[in-house]
Amino acid sequence: MIEDLIGGFGVVLQPINLLILASAVLIGFVGGALPGISGVILVVILLPVTYSMEPTGAFMLLTAIYASSVFSGLITAILYRAPGTPEAVMTALDGYPMTQKGEAGKALGVGILSSAVGGMLGTVVLIVATPLLADIALQFSSPEFFALAVLGLTVVASLGGNLLLGLIGVCIGLVIASVGLDPLTGATRFTFGSLHLMSGINLIPVIIGLFAVSEVLKRSQEGDIHLATKKFTIRIFDWPIIRRIRMTVMRSSLLGTAIGILPGIGASTAAMVAYSETVRWSKDRKSFGKGAPEGVAAPEAANNAAAMGALVPLFALGIPGSGTTAIILGAFIVHGLTPGPTFMTGNSDLIYAVFVGLLIVNILILVFSRPFIAILSKLLDVPYSVLGPVIVICCIVGTYSVQNSMMDVWLMLGFGVAGFLLEKIGFPLVSIILGVVLGPIAESELRRSLAMTRGDPSVFWTRPISAILLAIAIALVVMTVVMPLLRRRKARKDALRDA
Amino acid sequence: MHKTLRHITAAPALVALMIAAPALAQDTEFSPSSMTAFVAAGAGGGTDNFTRTVQPMLEERLGTNITVINLPSASGALAHQRTAQSEPNGESLDFASSTFITSRAAGQNPIGLEQLTPVARMQSDVLTLVVNPEKYETFEDFRAYAEANPGEVVIGGTHAASVDRMAFLALNEATGFDLNFIPYDNEGAASANLLSGNIDGMFNEISAIQGYMESGEMKPVLALADERLEAYPDMPTTVENGWEFTFGNERGVFINAETDPEIIAAIEAAFEDVFNSEDYQAYAAKANLDVRSGWLGSEDYRKVLEENLAFFEELLADQ
């Protein structure tokens, strides 16, 4: 392996390949920062360009774009509450309040560092343990995915705010997710005869509408005020902060990698679970959602680690772990490579070059992010009466580009208005996203599990991984929901007795 | 009731084309300034790869620029709809797979052969029943187990209106096995479950499972074809077992049915030229898409599609 790695460095350090990596990082930055343009779309756009390249360069380009786009979604999430990619939704939760408090530089610094650490840890795991992890990933089938989705849904209990509203939000999300064709029988659900609704409601219009557009609407009501953060400096290596978030970053990176290797469970889910775990381990739960640096560190470390983890089943088994890796898989085939269990042994030159490329990409992210954000933050000098409409236009273009659909744009604007109104009553908008992301996984995997056993639910507790995950979920609900209720009751009793 | 779905051999089609197509193509100069290729599938999949490979070859032959637009929504129905509603000037093409017909049979696709005319079929892959060799060494093993354990054998596949589900229904009906079907979100998820032994089999093209065959973790045991495949002479076929159905995933090109037949013929001729080119054949070989010849001209492709549609509708009606 060491020889392979040295060989990989030899390939990557060729000037042409370094140039490829640097341009990939910049493309990923721009695309990731634009709401709606996600890694998937960038990879699709550049796919034809890679047809004429030799395979090593082609896959370094595609994987590097993927990695840097997952990173750069955080910039607009923190500055404008307009998550550039679905993976960055959770980052907006604490990142944007930090910006409102005038701590944009700090939030970006935390985000950049956590992303780079998460990405690098994920890559190291990828290099060391790909074949081993791939076997573990195969232990996950429908019952385990169902249990993981349930665990993810319990995040709602750690979001803070009104729990009842959070639960309603999850249910709204589940309803949105159930639109379209039934995943198992193909029956149409809530499509009202519309072809556009048949494939369901895409996640991106929901996220962009609920977060970005609703925020523009809200600020337009507040009149033309400049952000308090007109001038800020990003400090990436800010030691007091690093001491504070280091455990969070390590835990979230490992969690992110672990979730990323599971086929079909992407970086968005990883960010959600990492955020929830961070809240649970924190001594100061109340600060989350109001601008806690840990709330930025956790999802960013996790989503970048998960993006790397998603490459594990792709390389080791030929099974894509996420939407973007599915497209990279298609690219393998066009290049005449045969993905599958023998892929790694047959193409170790290519794989190790890609691994080394990813390591370097994560360093380039650290180097390039500051000048890039400095350019972006110039936009903060623009009055919001101009910037707001520009954000909305970016949202419209980005949403349209996802699947060339005007219907998505109307949905996005509708969700924008809905988000604006819901926030007026203090509704935790992210709970809706939880339902939309995790609902389909929970539903279809539950039904597949039962189809596998012909209706016997014992499969959920006789399979060890699923049993453990469900037990953690139940314990979480008991700890965060039932215990405070009991405590309140006891306190009331005590008060009565004292009186 | 059994129905034959045998694929018409390429020979008569080629002969017909040699007489008709060049003559027509010379009569009509079809060279628009730009064209649109709607892809009835997501980016990165087989149909998308096919489109993007053919795009520059077609641009060169028609002297035009082609914009590729992926419309994967609703099993590609939006791509069919946009093509059917386009100006009938030959400038909008619909690149689709067999899902066009399976989703039509399942009632998920409002656009049929009345609104879209097939231009050409470029690929015709053979579906095979794929199993985990740790469980079943041969089709006889699979058959013995399925017959001894009715209701116990699970076949994985993609969505409910897919070619694999049709193949499953046809096999169940023809053999009298009592197999179960679980649709997964994508082929990868089904593959993972087959590798880990959670399911007993899946239907897939040989081109898609090369890597797993090399590592000995998957094995095709039954070809849904009428003749044994040249490269796999030991694999039995459905037809030799007396089950009169054959299946494959086909990829081709469609156009608004109101388009001038001369324009259609000109585009068909361009596609035929692409199909016979060295570049295209090299791509087909690289992606293992040349197990059997894919080419069918407009008329013959329509016949095959009409037969398939009737067969699928019958299969689904029996459910």
Automatic annotation (TrEMBL), chain A:
Pfam families for this protein: TctA (PF01970)
Residue stretches spanning the membrane: 20-47, 59-80, 107-133, 145-178, 190-213, 253-275, 314-338, 350-376, 382-402, 409-441, 461-486
Alphabetized InterPro entries for the sequence: DUF112_TM
Keyword Transmembrane: yes
Residues in DUF112 domain copies: 18-434
Keywords for this protein: Membrane, Transmembrane, Transmembrane helix
Protein name per its UniProtKB record: Tricarboxylate transport membrane protein TctA
From TrEMBL, chain B:
Lineage of source species: Bacteria, Pseudomonadati, Pseudomonadota, Alphaproteobacteria, Rhodobacterales
Record carries keyword Heme: no
Protein source organism: Salipiger mucosus DSM 16094
Family: Belongs to the UPF0065 (bug) family.
Protein name in UniProt: Tricarboxylate transport protein TctC
Amino-acid biosynthesis in keyword set: no
Signal peptide positions (record): 1-25
Keywords: Signal
InterPro entries named among the record's database cross-references: BUG (IPR005064), Bug_dom1 (IPR042100)
